């Protein structure tokens, strides 16, 4: 029998979010209903609200979540009632061309719940990233649930569901940072800060954090940055191109006249990508994890792509496998070896999501987390 709970929706583009009654259907054969304990407020949710992802309104927002499995479908075998889980949006199918090639981290056909949640008038809700977790209880496919140590703080480990895993994975999985390498991270929001922490975990010797906020740069030191650069305060010509860019020269100065082995662009605009491209050393690696908007274009000399060699990568969800990575980083967090809890700056109620969006846009927090 369906249940009615409270959830946060975006009814139309740029509209203030609303806390409304949401109908959660009975679970299908492979569906589960999860009682949400905590859900992070992510830039992706703001993008849904503002029309940056699509126009399938109304959206049920929220996706960085942890909670308890409450009800399971008739054929569910992956989890049981009472399991503590982190939700993910990469429930690999095992059948698509990526999975068959042994690359499930690129799965093209991830699973979602078999039925949509609705408003009380029957209007179907599009769940953010197939999850929709700014809600008391949500319905997802069993493969979207990853069991982790139940002693962990839901507000902390829920962040592995998106942004923190994206930045951490960009460093460790996509960037493949090795011990002794040098790393630069452009943009010190939640994703970039997670990349800094990931670089430290991987054993990088120089970790250079780049941002326009001194406050964020000071905080980056807490997560492992050995050097910081405020790119807004550098001498030189801000319109310079290539290796003459002031931020590129600043990195070269730190690294003894060369670039870094790896650069993570956690902003994702043409200007920062150009910085990342030239900041890296010859044959170095650039990882794009910041998400560009559809209208952005990049113009650069093609010869420079050939001449610098190396690799240019995009990190999708930090190239993670939830079943492998979520339990691992939960354990490292509980052991005090990865500062997952330090990303939680404030804990808020379900009716405070709109205010959290404003706080996030102002750059005042790494993560606000809704607790239920």
Automatic annotation (TrEMBL):
One of its GO terms (molecular function) is S-(hydroxymethyl)glutathione dehydrogenase [NAD(P)+] activity. Its cofactor is Zn(2+). InterPro entries: ADH-like_C, ADH-like_N, ADH_Zn_CS, GroES-like_sf, MycoS_dep_FDH, NAD(P)-bd_dom_sf. Residues 190-331 form the Alcohol dehydrogenase-like C-terminal domain. Keywords: Metal-binding, NAD, Oxidoreductase, Zinc. GO terms for cellular component: cytosol. GO terms for biological process: formaldehyde catabolic process. It holds the Pfam family ADH_zinc_N. SUPFAM superfamilies: GroES-like (SSF50129), NAD(P)-binding Rossmann-fold domains (SSF51735). Residues 28-149 form the Alcohol dehydrogenase-like N-terminal domain. Belongs to the zinc-containing alcohol dehydrogenase family. This is Mycothiol-dependent formaldehyde dehydrogenase.
């Amino acid at each position: 029998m369906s249940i009615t709970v409270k959830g946060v929706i975006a009814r139309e583009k740029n509209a203030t979010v609303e806390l409304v009654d949401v109908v959660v259907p009975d679970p299908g054969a492979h569906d589960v209903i999860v009682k949400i304990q905590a859900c992070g407020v992510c830039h992706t949710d703001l993008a849904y609200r503002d029309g940056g992802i699509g126009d399938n309104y109304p959206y049920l927002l929220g996706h960085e979540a942890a909670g308890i499995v409450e009800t399971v479908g008739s054929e569910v075998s992956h989890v049981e009632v009472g399991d503590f889980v982190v939700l993910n949006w990469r429930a690999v199918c095992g059948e698509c061309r990526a999975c068959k090639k042994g690359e499930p981290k690129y799965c093209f056909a991830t699973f979602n719940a078999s039925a949509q949640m609705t408003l009380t008038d029957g209007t179907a809700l599009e769940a953010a990233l197939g999850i929709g977790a700014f809600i008391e209880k949500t319905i997802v496919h069993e493969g979207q649930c990853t069991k982790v140590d139940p002693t962990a703080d839901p507000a902390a480990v829920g962040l592995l569901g998106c942004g923190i895993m994206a930045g951490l994975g960009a460093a460790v999985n996509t960037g493949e940072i090795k011990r002794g390498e040098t790393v630069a991270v452009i943009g010190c929001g939640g994703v970039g800060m997670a990349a800094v922490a990931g670089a430290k975990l991987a054993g990088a010797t120089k970790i250079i954090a780049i941002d326009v906020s001194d406050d964020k740069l000071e905080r980056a030191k807490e997560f492992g940055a050995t050097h910081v650069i405020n790119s807004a305060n550098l001498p030189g010509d801000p319109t310079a191109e290539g290796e003459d860019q002031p931020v590129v020269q600043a990195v070269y100065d730190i690294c003894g006249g060369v670039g870094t082995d790896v650069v993570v662009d956690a902003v994702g605009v043409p200007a920062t990508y150009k910085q990342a491209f030239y900041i890296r050393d010859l044959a170095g690696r650039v990882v794009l994890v910041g998400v560009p908007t559809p209208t952005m274009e990049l113009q650069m000399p093609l010869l420079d792509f050939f001449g610098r060699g190396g690799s240019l990568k995009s990190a999708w969800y930090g190239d993670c496998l939830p079943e492998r990575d979520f339990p691992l980083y939960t354990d490292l967090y509980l052991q005090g070896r990865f500062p997952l809890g330090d990303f939680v700056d404030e804990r808020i109620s379900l009716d405070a999501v709109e205010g959290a969006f404003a706080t996030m846009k102002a750059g005042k927090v790494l993560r606000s987390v809704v607790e239920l």
